[in-house]
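Entry:
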Amino acid sequence: MPGSYPPSSLHVVGQPGLDFFVSKARSVSERPIHPLTRLALLALLGVIALAVPATATADPADETALAERFAPIVRLAADSQDCDYGESYGPIDVDLLFDEQTVALRGPWNPTDLVKIGPLAEDLADRFQYHLDFPGSALEPGCDYERWTLRLMERADPTVYAHVASDPAYPGKLALQYWFFYTFNDFNNLHEGDWEMIQLVFDARDAGEALAEEPVDVGYSSHEGAERAGWDDDKLEVIEGTHPVVYPAAGSHANKYTEALYLGSSAEAGMGCDDTRAPHLERRPVVQTIPSDLDAARRAFPWTAFEGR
């Protein structure tokens, strides 16, 4: 997608496997965090990969129940009027991009190579370095992406993708990841397509065990970095005992724990501000759980086999 950085190979929880269809451009850095929390969060520098299950007997029903139990609440900086500062929509259902006549699948040879208009999810399988192209100019976005996204979201509610993962290097630890997809990154590094995520870490071997536990750690992605919190930290707001609150910054979607104006810098994106201040639009996204089993994930969500950028 125009404006995105090429994907790079990074270690994620478990074994790299399912490459999503957009890379996360680098921008303002955050403070270092514990390596366990970094496992998946730093995947946002490049490809987003899913992991193999902790065991071959991972129970999809337990994974779905765990994902629903801890589903995040999203508080977006509100857009007071059409194309004003802030946002009037949340993370979208990826399926809205497929069989959509305003979306094009382009090849890896040059920016104008057209493969198909209105591609299906299945058309993305094994497409190395191809990309999806949305209507609009990433360098001169104007109101185009906001109006286009609002049109798409007339057909579906805001959505988050949950995934349960583990890593042999951290036995007895389980990560519950929530991935958010936004159509446009309106920050210093303008680009189409923006994945962000949060991760909850449990002292558990599988989702069944995690259902009887509380998370021990939480990590929120923020540009090329992330920020860690304990489940009982004051900065983490939890609703109804299980639902963490996320404040995506206006434009960049960097995930924050509180509403504030954050200032940071990066060698790649320069100086920038992440603003999560009120007023807010509160969203409880629909949760779709991507199975930890690789084959099951690709059957249920064919786009997870995309190796594009």
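Residues 41 and 252 are 16 Å apart (CA to CA).
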